[in-house]
Specification:
Blueprint (H helix, E strand, L loop, with lengths): L23 H10 L5 E6 L1 H12 L4 E7 L10 H12 L3 H14 L1 H13 L13 E6 L10 H7 L3 E6 L6 H4 L1 H13 L6
Parallel strand pairs: 1-2, 2-3, 3-4
Helix pairs in contact: 1-2
Length: about 200
Amino acid sequence: MPRLEPSGPVVLLDIPRALPPDEVPGWLTGVLEEHEPPVDLVGHSLGALVSVRVAAARPDLVRRLVLIAPPGIRSRRSLAYAWPLVRSVARSRPGFLVRLTTDALRAGPRNLVRGGRHVARAEVGEELASVTAPTLLLWGEHDRLVPSRDAADWRDGLPDARLVVLANARHVPMLEAPEELAEAIARFREERLDEP
């Protein structure tokens, strides 16, 4: 946060755990309406999926959009995420495993399964053309859960998108490459909107 705040206020949001995934875009729309829109909206994974849906449905709320490892460019079977998830967790550092376990316990098994199924079924390809906000796509080069090879489809589907691949990151660059992630977001937030 300290690296991002010089570019403007930063408000951290956490998706309410009890909210069904298909209701989250409506919840986020309500939150954004209270924060003097348009805002620079940043989402990671499921949060990125929600963010792109809000940006497509309500372009008046989003000035800039940052999507970190967004799923949903095409639907996948839920099991397609299982093996990459197991491999990613197995290669994680102990500190990350503690955080992951804490988050999983806080969310509860029902919400984890519900969120996973929602992400696996999601397909936002047709919605991308409705996004008017300049968009920054951020991907960990070694992301096995949402592979960086999906990035080209996202970039091609969005009207105004640029891509940054973080060489030393996997699916959670906030923990794996925090300085590089913050630098890329800050540069994007500071970019003049009338410049490419």
